[in-house]
Amino acid sequence: MSRICAYSRCRLWAAAVLYIHTCFSMKSVSTGSGFVGAAPSREGEAPNGAAGGRSGRGVSSPAPAALRGRSWLLGVRGDCRSPAPPLLLEAERGEGRVTLQPAQLPKRARPPDPAPALGTMVKIVTVKTKAYPDQKPGTSGLRKRVKVFQGNANYAENFIQSIISTTDPAERQGATLVVGGDGRFYMKEAIQLIIRIAAANGIGHLVIGQNGILSTPAVSCIIRKIKAIGGIILTASHNPGGPNGDFGIKFNTSNGGPAPEGITDKIFQISKTIEEYAICPDLNVDLSTIGKQQFDLENKFKPFTVEIVDSVEAYANMLRNIFDFSALKELLSGQNHLKIRIDAMHGVVGPYVKKILCEELGAAANSAVNCVPLEDFGGHHPDPNLTYAADLVQTMKTGEYDFGAAFDGDGDRNMILGKHGFFVNPSDSVAVIAANIFSIPYFQQTGVRGFARSMPTSGAIDRVAKATKIALYETPTGWKFFGNLMDASKLSLCGEESFGTGSDHIREKDGLWAVLAWLSIIAVRKQSVEEILKDHWQKYGRNFFTRYDYEEVDADGANKMMKDLETMFFDRSFVGKKLSAGDKSYTVEKADNFEYSDPVDGSISRNQGLRLIFADGSRIIFRLSGTGSAGATVRLYIDSYEKDAPKIYEDPQVMLAPLISIALKLSQLHERTGRTGPTVIT
């Protein structure tokens, strides 16, 4: 149903003045939104100044001969109470009236077939449903196997309704919501559900990326730009896709960031007691065509609007105002330009890479690979690390390229590589950006308010904060914890060891932003990635860091292991104990389950990871991940600082071997999980 329905509930009367001056040649009749009419035009000119004979409201076609050379008032008449009203076009002038049947009009100027639309309102219905007990959002929304969403009645509908129900009914009436996803399997079906449920619940305006495609950073950008009440993102981030893969639904609030715990807890509570949801089951929207579509709903005074937008442009424009694009273009396409290799891993960021890095900044077209978003990410795991982005690593090892980067499914994570496959640990990456932050024009304008890292992330950025006398915050894992600090103007740059880096330009981690930040540093310093990082270690010392991931292990066994470790850590006799491996000994200085008190609102987040901190500052951390969709993922983190110059270039696995041995022995991780080693080592 188009907007025309608002004018056709009984007898349709619509009129537009058609002026055809005798000294002009009548070129066309333009129809749109139920009106017929055209402005005069000179020979060779399109009416209303529209190129190619198109007006802003409709299509233009040659006018009937009976109307040429005079001024007429055109009216549309028809009884829309009947299934197929006899629409007529009437042209009146003082000396007479001409009635035109649709057949007399050129095909594209005829009124649209009214049978399925005119006089019909989009119905809103209430559907009874049964609650599910397992819809608790994790670190970044609800993630489950696709089959869970498809195989359980109303599973997605329940969760979408629960999200919308967290907003006060008065607040959401006529409000704007942003919707988009990473292109994975089941995304388009989920978007249509969101459209139907949002419309039925009073949301007035949806802004959706073309074909449903919007990166997570782009959603955050658009929410903030248009002051939407929030956004729903269809992604399972770095988890695999396809019919047998994962799907996720994530809610971002009006600041553009992931919903804080207070809201996700509310979503979960609603989902456990939901008995019904409202939906417009007959509402279907074309996601492929940029522009606005309007629909009239039962018992709603104002139309419901769906606006399909270019997936890239708003985000690209934001980046133009953050970085020096002229300098970056010279770096990527000038004389002696940097050769780059970017792997989009068939995720959402592909079109952004092509538009920004290749088309706008001049990188060679073959610099970017796997840039077409696919529902199953080409059968690969869209996680930018040394294991799942092995193709990029091998390509970089050839020495053909100076700079490499990979992104995850929804475009918020990144991996940075130098020539010959030189790997930049994510903890080091954010520290290097912090140390060179004024290479980015944005920070020259805004200044730097503070740095932050998630608790498991290495202390590399702490060294920079201390040297520059800039405040440093340590938060639980999850980007939502950075949002409060940013909104309170306490934070400018932050990062997580899980390949997430970002700043206060939006409220999400941002993979492409991180790549442009690194390229900006290279442009200013005129050094290679490896040279920049080694200089950093020489100045600040090095935090050796590794993470072991044990994916999809038995959840009961993992929980039992964590409980037993907590009991051990909380034993008073444990502090002061010496733990040894080989010829290395470490004295326990602190053992706890990390607890965070938000300095902005005072909220407390408990049980955020078991920490074992030694007298020399080395750390062993155990966490259960909140981003998996099946079983449990155990993460083991090891962090140890070294300032002795001869040792800073050693292999992290060699330097950390004693601490790794201690961690595995304390936890009996392999014995408890039945694994002989980790799924992924970072």
TrEMBL record:
GO terms for molecular function: magnesium ion binding; phosphoglucomutase activity. Residues 135-277, 314-419, 427-540 form the Alpha-D-phosphohexomutase alpha/beta/alpha domain. It comes from the Eukaryota. Its cofactor is Mg(2+). It is an enzyme of class 5 (isomerase). It is found in: Cytoplasm. It catalyses: alpha-D-glucose 1,6-bisphosphate + L-seryl-[protein] = O-phospho-L-seryl-[protein] + alpha-D-glucose 6-phosphate; O-phospho-L-seryl-[protein] + alpha-D-glucose 1-phosphate = alpha-D-glucose 1,6-bisphosphate + L-seryl-[protein]; alpha-D-glucose 1-phosphate = alpha-D-glucose 6-phosphate. One of its GO terms (cellular component) is cytosol. Belongs to the phosphohexose mutase family. PANTHER family: PHOSPHOGLUCOMUTASE-1 (PTHR22573:SF37), PHOSPHOHEXOMUTASE FAMILY MEMBER (PTHR22573). Catalyzes the reversible isomerization of alpha-D-glucose 1-phosphate to alpha-D-glucose 6-phosphate. The mechanism proceeds via the intermediate compound alpha-D-glucose 1,6-bisphosphate. This enzyme participates in both the breakdown and synthesis of glucose. This is Phosphoglucomutase-1.
